[in-house]
């Protein structure tokens, strides 16, 4: 799947204090998104799924004589193995990688140039199990380990949820 878009919007805006003065507001936006996915059955109980995506956003803005440029790029990839050990126990385990880069630059009227940027990578792995006590009650327990390069920290996060089916049309 993909989506590509380019938009250009421009107008003159009048000064609120002096209607005879006007300034230009101009925006050029470019956007792209691509994704792909894959799924295969390993056997009757186990499935392997994967996916990847790419995102690109660029905004070039002019307000009077000031120029602003920002660009964001992102990649996301994920692989998941899921299956069942029995009719009462299902397991899901996987890894994912997210990478983002952001750039911002300003050229201001007083010959001042400002810029900022960051690059971020997130690497994660997870495992969770669904335990069916009955046809109406399920417990999901799991763990997610994640490392974020932006703050340089790793975390280990437990997950726990309980679900009860209250009637035949509920989930």
């Amino acid at each position: 799947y993909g989506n590509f878009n380019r938009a250009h919007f421009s107008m003159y805006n009048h000064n609120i204090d002096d209607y005879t003065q006007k300034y230009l507001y101009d925006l050029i936006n470019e956007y792209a998104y691509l994704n792909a996915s894959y799924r295969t059955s390993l056997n009757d109980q186990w499935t392997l799924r994967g996916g990847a995506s790419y995102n690109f956003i660029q905004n070039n803005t002019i307000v009077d004589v000031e120029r602003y440029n920002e660009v964001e790029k992102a990649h996301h990839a994920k692989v998941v193995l899921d299956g069942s050990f029995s009719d009462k126990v299902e397991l899901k385990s996987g890894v994912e990688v997210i990478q983002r880069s952001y750039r911002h630059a300003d050229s201001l009227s007083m010959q001042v140039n400002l810029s900022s940027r960051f690059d971020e990578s997130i690497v994660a792995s997870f495992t969770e199990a669904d335990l069916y006590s009955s046809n109406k009650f399920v417990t999901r327990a799991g763990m997610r380990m994640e490392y974020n390069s932006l703050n340089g920290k790793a975390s280990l996060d437990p997950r726990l949820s309980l679900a009860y089916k209250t009637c035949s049309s509920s989930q």
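The chain has a mean pLDDT of 92. The longest strand covers residues 22-41.
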